[in-house]
Design goal:
The complex is a heterodimer of chains A (906) and B (766).
Chain A (H helix, E strand, L loop, with lengths): L9 H4 L7 H6 L5 E5 L16 E5 L11 E2 L11 H18 L7 H17 L17 H12 L3 E3 L15 E3 L9 E3 L3 E3 L2 H7 L4 E4 L14 E2 L21 E3 L4 E3 L6 E3 L21 H4 L2 E5 L15 E7 L2 H6 L1 H12 L15 E7 L3 E5 L8 E5 L15 E2 L4 H14 L11 H14 L3 E7 L34 H13 L1 E7 L7 H10 L4 E3 L5 H17 L2 E11 L3 E7 L3 E2 L5 E7 L4 E7 L9 E10 L5 E13 L2 H6 L3 H15 L5 H22 L10 E2 L6 H9 L2 H4 L6 H11 L4 H8 L2 E4 L26 E5 L3 E6 L5 H8 L20 H16 L5 E6 L5 H5 L14 H16 L1
Chain B lengths: L3 H12 L1 E3 L3 E3 L2 H6 L5 E4 L32 E3 L4 E3 L6 E3 L22 E6 L8 E7 L4 H17 L5 E7 L2 E6 L6 E7 L6 H7 L20 H4 L4 E2 H14 L17 H15 L5 E7 L22 H5 L6 H17 L2 E8 L6 H11 L3 E4 L5 H10 L11 E10 L3 E7 L3 E2 L19 E7 L5 E7 L12 E11 L5 E13 L5 H6 L3 H18 L2 H19 L1 E3 L2 E6 L7 H10 L10 H11 L4 H8 L2 E6 L2 E5 L12 E5 L3 E6 L1 H9 L8 H20 L5 E6 L6 H4 L11 H4 L14 H13 L4
Parallel strand pairs in B: 2-22, 8-9, 8-13, 13-14, 14-15, 28-29
Antiparallel strand pairs in B: 1-3, 3-20, 4-5, 5-6, 7-22, 9-10, 9-12, 10-11, 16-19, 16-21, 17-20, 18-19, 21-22, 23-24, 25-26, 25-27, 27-28
The chains are: A alpha+beta (906), B alpha+beta (766).
């Protein structure tokens, strides 16, 4: 089957409900050109030289049963006669009629969709040709997701094979660890590395792994085992210091082992000796997690602790901006009230009765107020530090306390804080000193921890880290646009370093009413494993719940502190670049003040030497960290990949979701140093190279007009296009600089699931959901064409949640969801759905709840009525359409990419 | 005429002035030959229960550079209503309010018995007293508890309208806000960072940056609500502050093994000074600093926090090995000067077993008139009672403390002022009557004394500038006027004027008169102050040599002897005790640093240069009383010969009160005879010195260390180190008598000292 090397692995070659039908329907059909006007000058791409381009849909006859997607676009057919033009549309029309199954689009879709071109074409015979091409004919992300779910959903994924490609992130599967880390922890852009650097260079496919060391593991999968070797600590290779893992080859009757990474032969320590069985396997293979599993933990010894002192449990410090803005908006009271209950849910070890995490409180405006909440006190005590130039922490004993013990004093304090500052008229704030204070406090207490900062405005008070408004829209689309995203001051850089060396993570909750320079303010958070939450023009009634659920998730989530990660690889390649909410002091050690269950690090690899197909490519990610109860641990994730001298192998085992994660992070980083235009061009160029290389080396010869995509990457263009249309990269003066910076920064630590969802939101039709079933209705493609006037849709991308109501939405549905008679009565400022006792309402609410539950941060529900002004925000997320602020539609982009590919090939 | 003794006593009682010479040599040359300069001890606020203050403004001489106050020495023309200034001879008309004046209707200031008179004047709004407590929290739990109690107690002693403030320090410095109701609030400062006064005020929120004028001139903080956050009337915050003090915790920062606690004394004081500077400039205020150890960090640090490096000793200082000494001293001096300029005084209450850095910090109190109290622990009656006595009241029920004093001295044109030694700083008031020879704090006619008590005494040094060839007519008198303005503890502003005059005498023809007018007690103290003042800046042996030379010169001048015949040497009665004072002064801790730590020396010197004559003499030559069955208690010689087995001795050195039981008495006591009814007289004997000691303890500030010891007791060393070692292990057997107790010392005895003095005095070579 795979003589040519481009036939997919068995799972893919099996029937594909959607795709499998194409060849059948088109196999015998000759190439049928389909005109497609390339629009006016697209915002992101230079216009094609002709101003007119033609798209042609045609499968490639020789590979009928193959999984390839062909999307030939023949520029040479510009001169195609009007007749063939018509012809082609007809065919498409037929196709649409034939293919529009229940899973593809509603029956109504095909009709209007087809009508457009005809009418348009008729009206503009001499002018630009019609705009519509059957949207179902291009690779569909929802389809791919659905297929994978159908094929691999609900199954057990056993990690016993080297280089096997895991199910998609959207697929629901169970992992059984048999020697390789679960894809939840590590996911690669490709599971088959090219053997040589030349090959890698040729194909330009990035070799990267996205590591989410603390990824949440579903309840039905085994939790992490902890291996304790006592005083001696974990067993490591003498040369490369890799930890004991399934890739260590025992020999010499079990007396020695060869390191799989550096091939060094080490003595087995006497206490660890074990006989080998007839297969050369240790007898205790199954008893020792470090020999049989891909992921496990070692208990660390004092050697792994700071100053050789045992670590202490971390501390959470809540730092509340009590300047005028926050008092007035009611935020301070909201936070204080919430903390009283929230602190009962601080993270704790499994099985522990109460959390070991200590808490501390600071309020601030221009000056800082620390609170002594020692349990012995009758009243909390406030200590004011006004020396913001050189921050220090005024007290040790009584600042960081156990919540359970000091509950009375803390509650007393939280009651008083809103009143104490009720009459404040201080509107200036400081920021850097606040973080500094947190670091100093942790330093003094000799522990790691996390700062929760609730901040309102750009820090203009005279203190280190004072910021100026530098939001200059004139810079957009110029060489200097990048400066908007570069952090302003060296102060913050030093602060990040201080934070990381103390294991102090910063979570920033921003409540701005205007520009606050997130690029700078968020800098520390994004280097310390923290998160940035932003609530513009915060109002308690409107945004309170949204903020509180973010806060709850953030406080409660599983997390490790003061972490150092090292990625070791077998000889021949090595980790060269790291992306994430991390800090790098040298080129190998990834330092993270904290790492929680949602933070991922993307690691890029480069060749040093030739890899052997036989041994493959091994990687071991070792993360040294402090647990929530103050124990020092080493978390090890091992993963083995294949190596191949055949590029087709590589393309076959590519992972589009991981690829786009890498592209997103590298593009967002590049935009700090390069003009956005260059960044965008580079992205497209690399994509074109990847695809061109595939075409040249792996696909069977076909007409140049055909666009050929490898199966594993067939939806890559839609993601890439979506990425190009994201706020940070789009370069539009209509977007707020803060929002762009915010999105850029929040993406740095995203895992594959998050980037996937962000770049291809879920659009869930609700009007025809089956209220009896408990599954979420299948999402449809993110395009305006999929909306129906009589429909109701839910759209979510991990950050926002929209409920779109069509103009002709049935009143019964409206009634059952909102308890109002008609669409006109639906209040748009609704922040949560009313709890009504009917199946529709229950179903919808359960869908929303389950979505909210799955995402790392809370999403604010926005009700959007069709043709309302607020619809614009919603439409931004329809990523297959032309971008509102620029950016091509999916179809246009495909044409563009195809043109680029052809250029590469010629 | 009364004897000089009576004259001197009378003058002291009336004016609080004791001159070294009560007849003044009439020329500069003769004055210098008298060795002891024309000088006086002046007690500005000498208690005068019989002196009612007058309720009007003093009348001043109209000459711009004179401004002397009308006094009994002025010549008055009642008819023309004109008076002549006795200093500059300017003729001044009386003000209109004196229209009714006549030789039978004189205002008080013209009556001879009112040579000292006090005016109550109305100037500016009355300002309450201000007390700012600066409390070290790096104390042992027990000490801190005791200190807290003392402080709480002190609140009840303060006048209800007095303003109080609280600063605590340890590793950090906390300024406590007193006005807040719900939450105890304090402003915290880093203990290592020096801040300017302006920065401190800004950080405390005392200045409103918006309110500063367009020229950037900061507007004086007038809003009482703002300042009152830190300084509140006692009656308002009594409860709050009591609670606050009660909740004071030991400094919470852990002190690692082998380290001293980090104590930011320097910054705490600078914040206290800065706070008062910003809120109450030129108003009487008292900073009371309580510390339990040396400053160990930040500016003003005296010793590092490593316990293995001990605090500087005299040995280190002479070897120039005290690395923080100079810097710290300079720092505290600058602080003291800032406080002094604003009329704020700083007290130091230092209680620790080791040194606390008084050597470096002494200037804080010395320059601002503050107290220094030194003890072993805050949990001792020594501290508790000393502290309580700070708030003692006079016969009128008013505090024995006055603030913001300035002392101005005016004198006849034959005299110039060389300087003053006492708890004062120069105000740099220039004038024609300033001598070029600076003695003590000179170069000015005005001094600031930030805090005064009735016993505060300054030594003033003058120079006779009259030339030899311009004789003063017979019967001429020189006059000196002291004008002391101060803030009375009842918030009144007062001016006390003392005008004294002495006759001029021609030293050649009237040397006997001059000799008999010699006040040897005052002179001893005046010379001792000079010696102590020199000792602050010079090497100990140099000072001793200087003192010796002065003594020899004095003996040469006034002794009667045949050349080179020591046995013929005689001194007149008015000088007879002087050499003995000098002998004890040489042995005193003011000049002898051996056996005294630098802190102790500073402490002793501090008190020596401010106490009145009586107390100063006790310090120079302690008093020894002997109790026996042979008669009533009697003062005995401060000599080892007075230590007899059947005696009880009571020694008062001002700083210590020692009760010493002789060998026999001690054995009896041990045997418990006093319990038996038949030996009741013994019981009485035992009790007698205790009662007398109690009486001394009642009135002494600071509380002396009370020591009850006996023959052979370790504490007996306090007595043995003070007495004249007439018998030592060197001459014990040569004396061959069984009287007294030998002292194991190589020090010379008074006898040897005197012999040597005579020899040198009569030597023609000298």
């Amino acid at each position: 089957m795979s003589q040519q090397g481009y036939v997919a692995t068995p799972p893919y070659s099996q029937a594909q409900p959607g795709m499998g039908g194409y060849p059948a329907g088109f196999g015998s059909t000759p190439a049928q050109p389909l005109y497609r006007h390339y629009g006016g000058p697209p915002q992101s791409f230079p216009a094609p030289p002709t101003g007119k381009a033609t798209c042609l849909w045609s499968p490639n006859p020789p590979v009928k049963s193959s999984v390839y997607v062909f999307l030939p676009i023949g520029l040479h057919q510009v001169q195609v006669t009007r007749a063939s033009h018509w012809n082609c549309l007809c065919v498409t029309g037929q196709f649409g009629g034939q293919m529009a199954g229940p899973g593809m689009a509603g029956p109504g879709m095909a009709g209007p969709g087809m009508a457009g071109p005809f009418q348009g074409g008729a009206a503009q015979m001499a002018g630009p040709p019609q705009k519509k091409l059957d949207p179902d004919s291009i690779p569909s992300t929802t389809q791919v997701i659905e297929d994978d779910q159908a094929k691999r959903g609900g199954q057990v994924y056993t990690t016993n094979l080297r280089g096997q490609v895991p199910p998609l992130v959207t697929t629901d599967y169970t992992v059984q660890d048999q020697g390789n880390a679960s894809p939840r922890f590590m996911r690669c852009t490709t599971y088959s590395f090219p053997c040589t650097a030349d090959l890698a260079k040729q194909c330009q496919v990035p070799l990267a792994t996205i590591i989410k060391p603390f990824a949440t593991v579903p309840k039905n999968e085994t939790p992490m085992y902890v291996v304790n070797h006592g005083e001696t600590g974990p067993i490591r290779c003498n040369r490369c210091k890799a930890y004991m893992c399934p890739y260590m080859q025992f020999m010499d009757g079990g007396r020695r082992y060869q390191c799989g990474f550096c091939n060094c032969v080490n003595e087995v320590p006497p206490f660890y000796f074990q006989h080998l069985d007839h297969m050369g396997k240790r007898v205790d293979f199954y008893e020792r997690p470090e020999l049989s599993l891909g992921s496990y933990e070692f208990a660390a010894t004092l050697d792994y602790c700071k100053n050789n002192k045992p670590a202490s449990p971390p501390a959470y410090i809540f730092m509340i901006d009590v300047s005028y803005a926050n008092i007035k908006s009611g935020l301070v009271r909201l936070v204080c009230d919430e903390l009283k209950t929230l602190l009962d849910n601080l993270p704790r070890e499994d099985g522990a009765e109460s959390s070991m995490v200590k808490v501390g409180f600071v309020t601030y405006n221009k000056i800082l107020h620390f609170y002594n909440v020692k349990s012995a006190l009758a009243q909390p005590q406030m200590m004011v530090v006004s020396d913001t130039a050189e921050m220090f922490v005024p007290l040790l004993d009584g600042f960081l306390v156990n919540f359970q013990e000091s509950r009375a004093v803390i509650n007393n304090l939280l009651d008083q804080i809103p009143d104490m500052f009720a009459d404040t008229n201080e509107s200036e704030t400081v920021f850097a000193p606040v973080i500094q204070a947190g670091v100093e406090a942790l330093k003094a207490a000799e522990c790691s921890g996390k700062l929760f900062i609730f901040h309102s405005s750009i820090p203009t008070a005279e203190a280190p880290g004072k910021l100026k408004n530098r939001d200059d829209k004139k810079l957009i689309n110029t060489e200097k646009e990048k400066t908007l995203f570069q952090p302003q001051k060296a102060v913050y850089e030093q602060l990040s370093k201080d934070c990381v060396s103390q294991g102090c993570s910063v979570d920033l909750f921003l409540f701005p009413s205007q520009y606050v320079d997130i690029a700078t303010m968020g800098d520390v958070a994004t280097h310390t494993g923290g998160s940035i939450f932003k609530y513009s023009n915060f109002q308690v009634e409107r945004d309170g719940q949204h903020f509180l659920s973010d806060l709850r998730k953030d406080v409660e989530k599983a997390i490790g502190f003061d972490a150092i990660m090292r990625v070791r690889t077998s000889t021949g390649f090595r980790a060269t670049d790291f992306f994430g909410a991390i800090h790098m002091n040298n080129t190998t050690d990834v330092e993270m003040a904290a790492v929680d269950c949602d933070k991922a690090v993307t690691v890029e690899f480069k060749h040093d030497d030739t890899l052997s197909e036989e041994t493959g490519a091994l990687m071991q990610c070792a993360l040294l960290y402090t647990t929530i109860s103050g124990q020092r641990r080493l978390r090890i994730h091992n993963l083995s990949l294949n190596c191949s001298a055949q590029l087709s192998e590589l393309y076959k085992s590519c992972e589009t979701d991981a690829l786009i994660n890498f592209f997103t992070k590298s593009a967002y980083r590049a935009m700090l140093n390069q003009p956005l235009k260059t960044v965008r061009e580079n992205l497209v160029n690399q994509a074109a190279h990847m695809l061109a290389c595939y075409r040249k080396n792996c696909a069977s010869p076909s007409a140049a007009s055909q666009l050929i995509l490898p199966d594993a990457m067939k939806v890559f263009p839609v993601y890439l296009n979506s990425l190009l249309k994201t706020g940070p990269l789009v370069g539009s003066a209509e977007l707020s600089t803060d929002d762009r910076a915010h999105q850029r920064l929040s993406t740095t630590a995203m895992g594959v699931e998050d980037t996937q969802l962000l770049l291809y939101p879920r659009l869930i039709p609700l009007h025809n959901m089956d209220v009896a079933s408990d599954v979420v209705p299948t999402p449809v493609r993110c395009s305006e064409e999929r909306l129906t006037d009589a429909g109701m849709f839910l759209l979510e991308n991990g950050c926002s949640l929209f409920l779109w109501l069509g103009q002709a939405c049935p009143p019964e549905l409206i009634q059952s969801i909102f308890n109002v008679p008609s669409l006109a009565h639906v209040p748009v400022d609704l922040r949560s759905l009313p709890e009504l006792d009917n199946p529709q309402s229950k179903k919808l609410r359960s869908i929303v709840d389950s979505l909210l539950d799955q995402r790392p941060s809370s999403m604010k529900l926005l009700i959007v009525k069709q043709k309302d002004r607020s619809e614009i925000m919603f439409r931004q997320h329809l990523v297959e359409d032309k971008g509102l602020h620029g950016g091509a539609s999916y179809m246009d982009f495909l044409c563009y990419v195809h043109r680029e590919i052809r250029q590469v090939l010629t | 005429m009364a004897t000089y003794q009576e004259f001197i006593q009378q003058n002291e009682d009336r004016d609080g002035v004791r001159f070294s010479w009560n007849l003044w040599p009439s020329s500069r040359l003769e004055a210098t030959r008298l060795v002891v300069p024309v000088s006086c001890l002046f007690t500005p606020l000498k208690e005068r229960p019989d002196l009612p203050p007058v309720q009007y403004e003093p009348v001043l001489c109209s000459r711009a550079n004179c401004k002397a106050v009308l006094n009994p020495l002025c010549q008055v023309d009642y008819r023309a209503k004109i008076w002549a200034c006795n200093f500059c001879f300017q003729r001044n008309p009386f003000p209109p309010s004196y229209a009714g004046i006549s030789d039978v209707n004189q205002p008080a200031e013209l009556m001879p018995q009112f040579s000292t008179i006090e005016y109550v004047v109305q100037r500016g709004p009355p300002t309450p007293l201000i007390f700012l407590y600066v409390v070290d929290t790096c104390l042992e739990e027990e000490d801190l508890q005791a200190l807290k109690e003392s402080l709480q107690m002190s609140l009840s002693l303060l006048p209800p309208n007095a303003l109080v403030g609280l600063i605590t320090f340890g590793r950090m410095v906390q300024v406590h806000e007193l006005s807040c109701e719900a939450i105890a609030k304090s402003y915290v400062f880093r203990g290592t960072k020096e801040l300017s006064s302006k920065q401190i005020q800004e950080m405390l929120g005392l200045t409103n940056p918006a309110a500063s004028g367009p020229q950037g001139r900061p507007v004086a903080p007038q809003d009482p609500a703002v300042t009152c956050r830190f300084l509140q009337p006692v009656h308002k915050v009594d409860m709050n502050l009591t609670d606050l003090l009660g909740e004071l915790q030991r400094d919470p920062w852990p002190v690692p093994q082998g380290k001293r606690p980090l104590r930011s004394t320097g910054i705490a004081l600078s914040i206290a000074v800065g706070l008062l500077e910003g809120t109450f400039p030129n108003t009487g205020a008292r900073v009371m600093m309580f510390t339990g150890g040396p400053p160990t960090q930040g500016p003003g640090m005296v010793v590092g926090d490593e316990l293995k490096t001990p605090i500087r000793s005299w040995h280190d200082i002479t070897k120039d090995n005290a690395r923080h000494l100079k810097k710290a001293t300079k720092y505290y001096e600058a602080l003291a000067n800032r406080a002094a300029v604003n009329g704020h005084s700083i007290d130091i209450y230092a209680c620790a077993l080791d040194q606390t850095g008084l050597l470096e910090m002494k200037c804080l109190s010395n320059l601002t008139g503050g107290h220094i109290a030194m003890g072993d622990s805050f949990n001792t009656s020594l501290f508790k009672q000393t502290f309580q006595r700070v708030f003692s009241k006079d016969y009128n029920g008013e505090f024995c403390m006055a603030f913001g004093g300035t002392l101005e001295v005016k004198m006849s044109r034959e005299l110039k002022v060389s300087g003053a030694i006492g708890p004062c700083v120069s105000l740099n008031a220039k004038g024609p009557c300033i001598s070029e020879n600076e003695v003590g704090v000179g170069g000015t006619t005005q001094w600031k004394i930030c805090s005064l008590s009735p016993s505060t005494t300054l030594a003033m040094y003058f120079e006779v500038v009259n030339q030899h060839n311009a004789p003063i007519p017979q019967g001429g008198r020189g006059a000196v006027q002291f004008v002391t303005q101060y803030q009375h503890s009842n918030t009144q502003k007062r001016i006390r004027v003392t005008t004294v005059a002495r006759n001029w005498a021609d030293a050649q023809s009237q040397i006997q008169h001059i000799e008999s007018s010699f006040d040897q007690e005052a002179s001893a103290v005046i010379m001792a102050r000079l010696g102590v003042f020199r000792a602050e800046s010079e090497e100990g042996p140099d000072v001793l040599r200087w003192l010796d030379r002065q003594l020899i010169r004095l003996c040469q001048k006034f002794g009667q002897f045949n050349k080179d015949d020591p046995t013929s040497f005689k001194l007149s009665e008015s000088l007879s005790l002087y050499p003995q004072f000098m002998f004890h002064l040489r042995r005193s801790p003011f000049l002898q640093v051996f056996n005294n730590s630098p802190d102790e020396c500073s402490y002793y010197r501090h008190h020596f240069v401010r106490q009145d004559l009586t107390q100063s003499l006790i310090m120079i030559q302690p008093i020894l009383y002997s109790y026996s069955f042979h008669g009533p208690p009697e003062p005995v010689l401060l000599d080892s010969g007075s230590i007899l087995p059947d005696r009880i001795l009571l020694m008062d050195t001002f700083f210590q009160l020692v009760i010493y039981h002789g060998e026999t008495i001690a054995q009896w006591r041990k045997a418990g005879y006093q319990e038996q009814p038949e030996y009741e007289n013994f019981k009485h004997l035992l009790v007698a010195p205790l009662d007398d000691a109690q009486e001394i303890l009642q009135n002494r500030f600071p509380m002396p260390r009370y020591i009850d010891t006996e023959h052979g007791g370790s504490q007996a060393r306090f007595l043995l180190s003070k007495v004249n070692p007439s018998q030592t292990h060197n001459n014990l057997y040569s004396w061959g008598q069984e009287t007294g107790a030998p002292i194991l010392t190589d020090d010379v005895s008074l006898q040897v000292f005197m012999d040597h003095l005579k020899k040198l005095a009569v030597s023609s070579a000298a």
